[in-house]
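Could you help me review a protein record that somebody else here produced? What it holds is a sequence and that sequence's fold in token form. I need someone to confirm that the token line plausibly describes how this chain folds. Take the sequence as given and treat only the tokens as open to question. This is what I was given:
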Amino acid sequence: MDWQYFSEVLPHYKMALWLTVKLATIGIFFAVIVGVICSVIQYFKIKGLHQIVQVYLEIARNTPLLIQLFFLYFGLPKIGITLSGEMCGIIGLTFLGGSYMAEVIRSGMEAVSKTQLESAKALGLSNIQLMRYVIIPQAISYSVPGLGANCIFLIKETSVFSGIAILELTNTTKNLMGIYYKTNEALFMLVIGYLIILLPLTFFLMWLERRVRNAEFGA
């Protein structure tokens, strides 16, 4: 290992790490919002919107993120819409992530006991109250493992941002490999970069799952 190399490239990796975390955080935040909206529409099968959401889910889940990014970054300028690479990355993550989040949350909502729903309706709760006090709290509890897995998946998907020239971790590594020809050292830094992001998140999610599981059983 060339330790001098590490000191020279460390500032580049710090910037790449920050950019990766920033884009992933914003993308996941909006993906969760999209997921909640779509799952509610799917759960109640809202007429007109239900079919539109279904089409969105099928397109988002059955096309690679890289192709979606190419469409945003190279395709939209053909019709006069030009977006920055970072904006394309956020939209792409939101588009893809929202579909996965929607399915996880909808599954959590459908896991709520029918008996509870009927009891709540018998008490005179409206659909909004039913959603707020009965379905959403339990659905989030049931969905935590799936939502956590989706967050990790979306963070790792930021590696394809290199396809539209965003200087996140993978693209920075490729550039530095071309400049210094230090492949092993560059790949080592790349792995360390993703571990810095993903390991703390994984431990946090494991802790959160235990907390939620205990809460479900009233421990």
About this structure: The chain has a mean pLDDT of 89. The longest helix spans residues 3-44.
